[in-house]
Design goal:
The chain has helices spanning about 25-35, 55-65, 80-95, 135-145, 165-175, 190-195, 225-245; strands at about 15-20, 45, 70-75, 100-105, 120-125, 155, 180-185, 205-210, 250, 255-260, 265-270. By secondary structure, the protein is an alpha/beta fold. The strands form 3 sheets. A 5-stranded parallel beta sheet has the order 2-3-4-1-5, with helices on one face. Strands 6-11-8-7 form a 4-stranded parallel beta sheet, with helices on both faces. A two-stranded antiparallel sheet has the order 9-10. α2 packs parallel to α3 (about 80-95). The N and C termini lie far apart (about 40 Å).
């Protein structure tokens, strides 16, 4: 059984999903399994190593206010140890108020919640998930294209330098009313990227062209440079995970946000 043994007499106040070594694709499939679809962006919080106590507190207050919804904290193992301890205090408060919020935590590594008796623990394996990647992609397409109209929703164009990638994308952009080019490089900032995205008017048949110009570090790079590259890539991956899967991104420091208008036939192009 995937369930770890706990006392059956205990009333569990949340579920911890252990997803060790899961890829981003696997995490999307797992979230779909939990929600039986894609959650609203307000129902999921994606943790970062620099997540603050105020951010978590805001998410918890939302969960307590809407007990009929499900709320998920993704990759909670990335939280600082002090914040993981704060989760324990939150659940003590839930017990006192007899709140019925349905809370899920997804951990891709060790976490303090694993040994708590009030936590129902489920261990998952990627090859046993209910939803295939094809089904997951279909659900994401429905989010970005709720009307079901035929058009390019998202296209990845990759290859070697000089293969004509940019020329091909530019040709596709000409078929759209307006387009926006966003360069993703070593200075990537969620805030700056969101500010750029908000410049595109909310009109039908627009397009966004993401041009990735970062190159992986070579053997000549110092260890510091390699670590900086990995940190940037983690921020980039988290940003596009939220943008494509939830259709929504937010900068935690400023609060500035952007939501893809799924009903306006916007196309996304990615050049790598």
């Amino acid at each position: 059984s995937p369930l770890l043994s706990h006392s059956k007499s205990w009333k569990y106040s949340c579920t911890l999903h252990i997803a060790t070594s899961f890829t981003s694709k696997d995490l999307i499939r797992l979230i779909l399994e939990i929600y039986k679809g894609i959650p609203g962006p307000y129902e999921l919080y994606h943790c970062r190593p620099d997540t603050t106590s105020d951010e978590l507190s805001l998410f918890y207050r939302r969960a307590m206010k809407f007990p009929h919804l499900q709320f998920t904290i993704l990759e909670m193992n990335l939280l600082a140890a002090k914040l993981q301890e704060e989760l324990l205090q939150f659940h003590l408060a839930l017990e006192k108020k007899k709140n019925s919020s349905r809370l899920h935590y997804i951990a891709t590594g060790p976490t303090v919640l694993q040994d708590m008796p009030w936590v129902l623990v489920k261990e998952h394996r990627s090859n046993q998930l209910k939803y295939s990647w094809e089904v997951a992609k279909s659900e994401c397409e429905k989010l970005l294209n709720p009307s079901g109209e035929t058009f390019t929703i998202a296209e990845l164009v990759y290859g070697k330098a000089g293969d004509g990638k940019t020329h091909y994308i530019r040709k596709q952009l000409n078929a759209h009313k307006q387009s926006l080019t966003v360069v993703i490089n070593e200075s990537f900032s969620p805030y700056n990227t969101i500010v750029q995205l908000r410049q595109l008017p909310l009109e039908r048949n627009n397009a966004i062209y993401f041009s990735f110009t970062m190159l992986p570090p070579s053997e000549e790079f110092t260890e510091l440079d390699k670590n900086l590259y990995r940190d940037v890539m983690k921020r980039v991956e988290r940003f596009f995970f939220d943008l494509i899967f939830l259709g929504y991104v937010e900068d935690s420091d400023s609060g500035v946000s952007f939501k893809l208008p799924g009903d306006l036939k916007w196309s996304l192009f990615f050049e790598v």
